[in-house]
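Please fill in the sequence for the structure shown.

STRUCTURE ENCODING:
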């Protein structure tokens, strides 16, 4: 998915310093995705049935956080 914004209206610290047009994902979102990727890789060490269980548990945790308004 691509979004062409061509302006930056948020704090410059939120943008990748090499992102001239503000087309890349914001840095906090990039770091969050990296954290999720790391968590999922960590779960790869578990047998499949446990990996599935804990993956679903993590997803439920994120969904509950969103529903409770803990994500601004």
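FILLED IN BY: designer on duty
SEQUENCE:
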């Amino acid at each position: 998915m691509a979004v062409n914004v061509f302006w930056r209206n948020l704090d410059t610290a939120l943008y990748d310093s090499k992102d001239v047009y503000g087309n890349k994902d914001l840095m906090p979102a990039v770091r969050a995705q990296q954290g999720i990727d790391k968590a999922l890789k960590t779960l790869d060490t578990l047998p499949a049935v446990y990996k599935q269980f804990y993956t679903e548990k993590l997803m439920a945790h994120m969904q509950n956080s969103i529903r409770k308004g803990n994500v601004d």
